Amino acid sequence: MHSPRFRVAICGGGVGGLTFAVALSQYPDIIIDVYEAAQSFHEIGAGVGMFTRAFKVLRKLGADVEQHLLQHSSSGWTEEFVPIIKSRKSDQPVGTELFELRSKGHLMRFHRAHFHSVLLSHLPSTCTTHNAKRLKSYTQPTDCSRNSPITLTFTDGSTAMCDILIGADGIKSAVRSCMLRELAESVEPGEKEFVLSCIKPVWSGVTAYRTLVSAEKLRARYPDHRILREHTQYMGKDAYFLAYPIALGKYINFAGFTLQRDLVETVYEADGGTSRPSFKGKANNGWVSELTAEQFVEPFKDLEEDAQCILECVERGTLWAVHTVKTLPSTNFGRVALLGDAAHAMMPFQGSGAGQSIEDAYLLATVLGHKATTLETVPRALAIYDKLRRPFSSDVALRSRLTGQQCTFQVDVPLHELGDAMAKNWEWAWLTELDDALEEAVKLVEDGSSVII
Ligand SMILES: Cc1cc2nc3c(=O)[nH]c(=O)nc-3n(C[C@H](O)[C@H](O)[C@H](O)COP(=O)(O)OP(=O)(O)OC[C@H]3O[C@@H](n4cnc5c(N)ncnc54)[C@H](O)[C@@H]3O)c2cc1C
Predict the structure, then answer these.
(1) CATH fit for domain 6-77+108-200+328-410+432-447, picks 3.50.50.60, 3.40.50.2300, 3.40.50.300, 3.40.50.1010
(2) What is the pLDDT of residues 337-374, one digit of tens each?
(3) What share of the chain is helix, strand, coil (3-state, %, to 5)?
(4) Who lines ligand 1 at CB under 6 A?
(5) Ligand 1 mean position, distance from CA 15 (Å)
(6) What is the mean pLDDT of residues 51-80?
(7) pLDDT digits (tens, 9 = 90+) for 193-205
(8) How far apart are CA 114 and CA 42, in angstroms?
């Protein structure tokens, strides 16, 4: 056993936090604690898709992790160009196929619970997990070059210590809130207000409808329905949905969306307010409501017949008010950094939010794990992470928003050119790799000079 180089606390055990913990397992001299607010580690009953760029990062976690993940995906690994999503013009009684998106490599699709359980089962022995630990706040020494620890305070009144704190605590991140308050104290007075304005997430004007449909039920009614075989987007003005088989064909993952451009960055009102249809679902919290089948299918009732066959099989579902995080002025301060949705929660239209948290996690583990990084140089390592990841994830967020507009015909592009426009905006997810950023990160860590910008 090596003597520990430093103790990393990860706040949040979602996709990003657990990927980071597994990625850090390559460095046995780093002690890891994962603090998760929930009583147990779990994921919602929905699907998650990974494009080639994100899945290539997961492959770097080791052959065991890759094999284990592949056992839960209906698609094998390939780097050939393959059809991934059929897109239909569905805002008419009989829809028409508009185009088929092709990507280099499959869109790897998983049940979230399976994906999460694979990461959990590969946590390193250097990692201790703590459930029912909701972080309230932290304090770090004002002079980070001094080696005194960061103190974490949880809502149950308990405390813990660490050398480095990583906020992987999702869109409502407590770490982001504390970190931006610290940052606000260090910037010019004129910038303070902007920094503080980034703490709270904003509503994107998007509501997401999520459920799993029983493939058996659909097959019994419509044995040849396309959705049993292929990922399809049923596109319509203002409302559309996409669906695809997951869990080796047992379920159809359904993700539907309504977009109201005029309500972007407004405050979401759970009772519907006056400016949009009211959802009478049972609210779990301000942003998520349980819906009956009738409530769930309502926004999609004008879509084509083929879509109605799927909607007929819906039994219940949840409605999510999709919030986003503004592009932050920084994702690090001192020995604290943010990753995943805590740093850049984005609109879900490119199916890439989890992929971006995986990329964050791997690059962050690379800079922290590098043997040149010591407790004294951690702030610099985190600044390198910020420099290489923040612009990229911000760009993905913009691209994702554009995809949503394309899928609801809110763009000024002729229908026959929409497929090419969509592919061009999305191909970063299968034509590019994280490797260049990883190489650059290692170069900057090894260079050791104080200048990184
Ligand atoms: C409809 C929809 C479909 C999507 N589909 C896809 C897709 O196909 N592909 C894709 O890549 N992405 C997709 N996304 C985005 C993806 O779900 C998120 O980007 C991803 O889950 C973010 O992971 P995370 O680990 O950063 O945060 P989270 O998954 O939110 O995890 C945060 C964790 O932190 C814990 N936590 C919160 N607060 C605290 C606290 N104070 N203390 C301790 N723990 C705390 C939470 O309990 C949770 O376990 C979709 C999103 C939506 C809304």
Answers:
(1) 3.50.50.60
(2) 999 999 999 999 999 999 999 999 999 999 999 999 99
(3) 40, 25, 35
(4) 11-17, 35-38, 48-49, 134-135, 168-170, 174, 208, 210, 255, 320, 322, 340-342, 348, 351-355, 357
(5) 7
(6) 93
(7) 999 999 999 999 9
(8) 10
